[in-house]
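Lay summary. Proteins are chains of building blocks that fold into shapes, and those shapes determine what they do. In this project we predict the shape from the chain. Here is one chain we studied, written as its sequence of building blocks.
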Amino acid sequence: MSKVHVFNAGPCLLPEVVIEHAREALLDFKGTGVSLISISHRTKEWEAVMDETRALWRELLNIPEEYETVFLGGGASLQFLYVAMNYLEHKAAYLDTGVWAHKALKEAQGIGEAYAIACSADKNYSYIPKGYDVPKDLDYLHITTNNTIYGTEIKEDYDCPVPLIADMSSDILSRKVDVSKYAMIYGGAQKNAGPAGVAFAIIRKDSLGKVSRYLPTMLDYRVHIDKGSMFNTPPVFSIYVMNETLKWLKGIGGVEAIHAINERKAATLYGEIDRNSLFTGTAVKEDRSIMNICFVMAPGYEALQDEFLAFAKERGMIGIKGHRSVGGFRASVYNACTQEDVEALVAAMQEFEKIKK
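And here is the predicted shape, written in a compact code that computers can read:
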């Protein structure tokens, strides 16, 4: 079979060694003779995986002691509700930078007073809003650091006068983060941290317990912190693969090393988009994501879109069709995507240009 190059927006491409270890564990988990998906989560072997996974998160992101990391089902979309239930008492603001940020805001509005402090919908979310003031009476400001559909990214850790909460589903572990600037960071694992089926939440413990409403047990972060993410049966398989993904990342040099790799991949592909006469980028250059690279056919060549998709597919490109909100193409170059994968896409773009010009 010819080489395929996976650019899916999610679930992500996982390192081959992670998949191999998961395959082995499905047959025999740590020499127990029991499959990973049949293991009791109350065994010492599984509890060791949970402890190691939390420790790896802490090491890779240099998470301060006053924070805890929990692993929960339901993905980031359920975290939208968790956040509002646990933090919204009087008023919250959301930076509306795309579909997922808008959905997070909608969930909060179902709980209490929440509004968009700034929004980039006027230009189809092609930029990150700047220059807005953050009122000091907010319970929190919520941001989405990377916008998978539109290819924009917040690459800095904001200094914020109120508790800052960030959905980092699609750029977590791709770059260094100053965790101390956030009350909470959360996301789905299925971009850089593992497979679908588990969400992570990195929470400053003293930021909780500030709301007066009744919190259903399953929606109370304090319960999951106190029970080590095992108040109920955790998504065992997804957490195990997360553990293996984190070990892989540590083994190649950690977040600092992968950031350099990611920067190079993004520069390679954006360089070709800017050079190639058939294509043009969709995001403002200063806000371009290094995880989700979005582009379309250049003016005058729009009719070639489907032809290029078929052309690229013949050369092994998987998952480059853009989201319907933007059209065109999207190459998601998450951590496990290689420089070789990116260069193969660039070669296809160059070959297509030679044929069509």
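What the prediction tells us: Residues 16-251 form a domain with the Aspartate Aminotransferase; domain 2 fold (CATH 3.40.640.10).
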